[in-house]
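Instructor's aside before we start: the two examples that follow are unrelated to each other. I chose them only because their records fit on one page, so don't look for a connection. First example below.
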Amino acid sequence: MPKPTTPTLQHRLEYVGFRAVAGIMNALPLGVASATMGFVWKILARFNHRHATVQKHLREAFPAKDEAWIRQTTFRHWNNLGRTMAEGLCIGKLLKQRHRITLESQDLIDQLAQSTKGAVFVSLHMGNWELLAVPALQNGLSMAGIYQRASNPLVDRYIRLVRQPLYPGGLHSKRNTSVNALIKWVRGGETVCMMGDLRQRRGIEVPFFGQMVPSTPFPAMIAEKLDVPLIAACCRRTKGCHFTIQVVEISTGTGETVDDRIADATARLNKQFEDWIRETPEQWMWGHRRR
């Protein structure tokens, strides 16, 4: 287990600012907090160093779209991310208002809940991806999660604290020691959730928006190794703070070798992600590299 980082003065000052923003957001009605943060992010977006990157990636992914569409989609993208940040700070309040979250794939969730097998859920940074564990929890699936640690240890501890109720199996940071714990959890008939749509430097190349991009094979590897379903999950914002969640089972990869089957399943997973992104491109996080 890695030695905890000792908070510095800068960490403490950042944390004070972070908790102040969280306090303000939680003092407001949920819809107001979400709309306010979305508006602020949309206004300040042009000063963000990733603003040009978002536009570049949209042009590459949608070459037939004109500049007016690129600009509009870029600002709507920032609005969604701002809303998502506010809702993440108010996650406890949001979880008490379950009417805001609609599951479109109840039959598949019921099948997984009744099965003695585990499952691997893989999601993408769309809509409010923090909510993807809610339907699993509501339907009796005991899920473990994996996340990217925040650089500030105080902020990281707070994030883990507010997210923990969603993950009865624990919330594990991305490190080698987490792999065995997650495999053991799934082997015991439980489920695990992770993100799978960002660039993986040492990943395998699969098609994504007409380019070959390095992607993580980890979800498909666990599903193949343990012979459990590989499930793609997507959260979409419908209006304001209302969401729909869709889950789709990714068909088993084909190929003579294990590596071939993992690569094929990873490609199928990314194809599903691309299909969802094309439907609501303003809700995906375009600021990160995929190549």
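Example two begins here.
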Amino acid sequence: MVRYLGFRVLQAVGVLWAAFTVSFAVLYLLPSDPVSIAAGADAGTPVDAAAIEQLQARYGLDQPVAVQYWNALSHAVRGDFGISISTGQQVTDAIAAALPSTLVLAGTALVLALVFGTAVAFLATYTRAGWIRSLLFSLPPLGVAVPTFWVGLILLQFFSFRLKLFPAFGDQGIEHVILPAITLALPTGAVIAQVLATSLQTTWRQPFIEAARAKGASRLRIQTRHALRLSSIPAFTIAGVIVGNLLAGSVVVETVFSRAGIGRLTQMSVMAQDIPVVQGIVVFSATVFVLVNLAVDLLYPLVDPRITHGGSRGGTAAAAEEDPAHGDTLLEVEARV
């Protein structure tokens, strides 16, 4: 376990370094100058060239690229991402101020996505009506394909402007969270539904399901007590993808609904080419991603006893191959329940 943790920590450090390096390179390669943008030169505002040079020297943008990269990286390792070029605020303070709004939005969207995704997958594999099954199985691909901004605009038009049930913009109060959370939850819930429905279909063909049927268990009991628990493991593995979808989707959703949050801060910082803020957000997002994936890996043995972190090959297949009795443990338990 210690060796495994060490390897995973090294992987996490590599991911964070790559995220920082790629974001630095992309922002540096953009043709415009962040100091000129902040000073209003791109908007046609007359700006003194000496003032531009002074600001560039203040933020270290007059130094060679390698020096800029090393200075930024060495400070980032200590948790210091510098000062925002466009606002003059500490980057960590800007992220901390925007984080609570995004946490509320992402948390609400995650709950809705889990409810929506689980319900669609459960009903699609439980019902015996062919047309209902086909309809439900067509919803996840549709939810993934429909653009998030389009969903947000439709909800705004119908529920805010026409029915006037919810406020169109802002982030004060629970009524401002509902429409953005639904918009953000739809694509995430569609991914959960797609993975869970496929896993449930596979599980229904397993031998222990036939054993449970032979013991007289009802279809509902088999679905809830046996199939759903085992089928949730593949859905559990995409926790990192779900978190990534929520963070990426917040950029669009917070822009459409004019919410102050990490997504809106990202959009404004990219437009202003605010290198310190963008790098701080990228590293923060990558940190959340690697921590979630690490937590999933560590919780695997608790979810599925067949999975271990030991051995040279590791994982479910290796455990079952090296110890067939251990590989059948979960199925035997399920058949006896």
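Confidence is low (pLDDT under 50) at residues 311-337.
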